[in-house]
Amino acid sequence: MCLAVPGRIVSIQGHDLDRTGRVRFGSVVREVNLSCVPEADVGDYVLVHVGFAISRVNEAEAERILEHWRQMGEEPQPEGATP
Amino acid sequence: MKYLDEFRSADLVQNLLRAIRSAVTRPWTIMEICGGQTHSILRFGLDELLPREITLVHGPGCPVCVTPVELLDAAGRLARMPGVVLCTFGDMLRVPGTLGDLFQARAEGGDVRIVQAPSDAVRMAQRNPDRHVVWFAVGFETTAPATALAVKQARMLGLENFSVLLAHVRVPPAVEAILSSPSNRVQGFLAAGHVCTVMGTAEYEQLARRFRVPIVVTGFEPCDILEGVLHCVRQLEAGRHEVENVYNRVVRSEGNRQAQALMAEVFRPVDLTWRGIGSLPGGGLAFTAEYERFDALRRFDGACDDLARTPLPEGNGANREGECIAALVLQGIRKPNDCPAFAVRCTPETPLGAPMVSSEGACAAYYRYRHGQAASLTVTSP
Ligand code: SF4
Question: What pTM did the predictor assign?
Answer without folding.
Answer: 0.90
